[in-house]
Design a protein that fits this description.
Largest sheet: 16 strands, antiparallel, barrel
Radius of gyration: 25 Å
Strand order of the largest sheet: 1-2-3-4-5-6-7-8-9-12-13-14-15-16-17-18
Strand content: over 45%
Structural class: mainly beta
Order of helices and strands: HEEEEEEEEEEEEEEEEEE
Helix content: under 10%
Number of helices: 1
Length: 390
Amino acid sequence: MNPKYLALAPALWPSSGKAELSFDLQNQRYDTSYQLYQEESDRITVESWYLRGDIDITESTSFRFQYLRDAISGASPSGAQPGGLQPFLQQLEDVRTGIMGALSQQFGDHRVELEISRSKESDYLSYGLALSDKWELNQKNTTLAYGINYLDDDVSVYGIDPQDKKSYDFFTGVTQIIDKNTIVTANLTIGFNQGYLNDPYKSIQRTDIVQFDDGLGGFIEVPVVNTYAENRPDSRMREVLQLQGTHFFEDAHGALDATLRLAHDDYGVFSQTLQVEWRQAFGEKWEITPFARYYRQNAANFFHNTLDGVPITNPPDYPTGSGPNYSADYRLSSLDALSLGLRVRYQLSENVAATAAYERYQMNGIGSDQAPSEAYMAANIWTFGFTAEF
């Protein structure tokens, strides 16, 4: 944890003029889970372990935390084209650990929260700071939320000095209780990234013509396929609008939740996400939730499968983000994705519940700006966990 953030935390603790606090840890919630994300065709596998907690320290002060550990292995498209001499897939192996802590305090109708976080990989170190407020109005039927997130990242790139990246997110939203069974929410986020935004594991290929002396006063031209590091812009502005509604159907003892998410950035990517889920109770102990999510985006302005035909004289070995920009990362192509899944919750006792979920994820290229079909993946996602409340 970055020491410079520690001095901020005491500002949220209640002050009574005495050098002591009275703790009443009556409301506590903990959950732990394991998730296996596995792409088909020996692609990426990610095993994730999570531990989360939410504790009421006093009547007006609470603390929540999260610890996670992700282990990633397998192969991911490098940016080279399939079927050529350059490897289409690149092997990856890494472990990420992250920790987050957040302290919140009630001030009248306001709930202020300060959050700090740290995440580390072998080539990536990130520190985060977030400050937010929830303001209850209209006899607590309306809640306004607003705040700021800040990330300070260091990226290790082979061959050059470590690079930095900074991210800023400003968000605001409103939640409205329509009636006893209906809640609607609208959120808007404006974000800005600056610094090293390339993926150091992604490249793009180009067919270069190499000339050789033929010994007779002429030259022989030989086509050679080379790969170059991608060059994304060194800044990115993005906007995200999310609309959500939840309605409980008393006769069915079930709730319908629908979310629409619209996102745009100055890469030229516009994406739409629609998610719908139905939470159905069965008796006193079971809850079953089928869900579906559809995602669609157009390609970034600088997406190219290859640099062939792109007017670039000498692509640099270590791009700085200045133009012209180019990337063959399939995640910046024109694509859509569909997820179908099922979550099950079983109440083991008054305080402990078990959860399990399965999700099938399928991605495909669409339109004229898609990557090769081999780049898109299909994945199975399994999640198992326990929740305890006291």
